[in-house]
Design a protein that fits this description.
six-stranded mixed beta sheet; two-stranded antiparallel sheet; 1 helix
Length: about 90
């Protein structure tokens, strides 16, 4: 696989992990309460909706369940913003 020019990554403001010639971009998940934003998990690989909230799984196997919903995504910045539901 040929990779784009490294200048591209600086332009879009993210630093990918390159593993076995594949570009992987994990997101960080933040919980938003009013004007407060708190990092709840780094390197999120999977976000699974559950009946009572959201299950987050990192690339390291760490798992967290939050009573929250997705508020917004910033794909260029690799950020997931979650809002508590309860």
């Amino acid at each position: 696989m040929s990779l784009p020019n490294p200048t591209f990554y600086k332009t879009v403001n993210f630093e990918p992990c390159i593993i076995k010639d594949e570009i992987m971009c994990e997101a960080n998940a933040y919980l938003v309460r009013g004007n407060d934003t708190t990092l709840v998990m780094e390197a999120v690989d999977t976000i699974e909706p559950q009946e009572a909230g959201i299950q987050l799984v990192s690339i390291f196997g760490e798992q967290k369940f939050l009573k929250a919903r997705i508020e917004s995504l910033s794909l260029v910045d690799n950020k997931v913003y979650l809002k508590p539901t309860g």
